[in-house]
């Protein structure tokens, strides 16, 4: 398996593409630039099996329908944000000056609790990590020692909690009880910025001390 980080859109939101040797793929958080993203996926000769969303803020969902329509694949989202895709007032695209209003079709698959997701040859553990938003989910691939954390945990930072549904204490609880319990060598593929590791953030993230 290999994975690729693709920063997209004005906020440089990281989309991630996970693929195997047979060119089957998953796309996590296709946030923007749908036409360019679909073109890149086709150039790589990938067969996208599903789109996984860590949460439904506008900068993470802007290209959802483009990818879904191009590859006829389902979208996965947590139940607490299942109605955000179609609602610009909830996904935030109506709140930010200069942001394009975004509305996407409902997701085909609703994540209702923590579970193992088996999508084709891929096996991921969904971890409920609310706080940045009420339906934030992280996707953990145990066999490959990587977690896709969305906007919960960043290198040397954590997600903002001043948006509707945000909760600072809950975010810290999610990080400590779900993410920091993973092995220290686990790669953290963040929603924005560079990757890091669980060990690095345990040792030096200034937002996590004293919790």
Notable characteristics:
Metallo-beta-lactamase, Chain A; 211 residues; alpha/beta; 6-stranded mixed sheet; 30% strand
Question: How would you describe this protein?
Answer:
This protein is an alpha/beta fold. It has one domain (2-204): Metallo-beta-lactamase, Chain A (4-Layer Sandwich). The chain is 21% helix and 30% strand. It has helices at residues 34-43, 58-61, 64-71, 88-91, 168-179, 198-204, and strands at 2-8, 13-19, 24-28, 47-52, 75-78, 109-111, 115-119, 122-128, 137-141, 146-150, 153-154, 157-158, 187-190, 196-197. The strands form three sheets. A six-stranded mixed β-sheet has the order 1-2-3-4-5-6, with helices on one face. It has a six-stranded mixed β-sheet with strand order 7-8-9-10-13-14. A two-stranded antiparallel ribbon has the order 11-12. Helix 4 links the parallel strand 5 and strand 6 (109-111). Helix 1 runs parallel beside helix 3 (64-71). The longest helix has 12 residues, at 168-179.
């Amino acid at each position: 398996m290999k994975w690729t980080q693709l920063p997209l859109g004005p906020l440089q939101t990281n989309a991630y593409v996970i693929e195997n040797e047979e060119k089957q793929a998953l796309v996590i958080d296709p946030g923007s630039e749908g036409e360019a993203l679909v073109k890149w996926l086709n150039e790589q000769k990938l067969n996208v099996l599903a789109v996984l969303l860590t949460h439904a803020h506008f900068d993470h969902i802007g290209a959802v329908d483009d990818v879904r329509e191009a590859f006829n694949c389902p979208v996965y989202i947590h139940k607490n944000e299942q109605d955000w895709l179609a609602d610009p007032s909830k996904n935030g695209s109506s709140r930010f000056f200069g942001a394009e209003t975004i509305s996407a079709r409902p997701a085909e698959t609703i994540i209702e609790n923590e579970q193992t997701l088996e999508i084709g040859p891929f096996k991921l553990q969904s971890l409920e990590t609310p706080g940045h938003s009420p339906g934030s989910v992280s996707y953990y691939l145990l066999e490959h020692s990587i977690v896709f954390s969305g906007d919960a945990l960043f290198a040397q930072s954590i997600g903002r909690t001043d948006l509707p549904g945000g909760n600072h204490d809950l975010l810290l609880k999610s990080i400590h009880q779900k993410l920091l319990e993973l092995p220290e060598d686990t790669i953290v593929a963040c929603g924005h910025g560079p990757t890091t590791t669980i060990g690095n953030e345990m040792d030096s993230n200034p937002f996590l001390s004293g919790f």
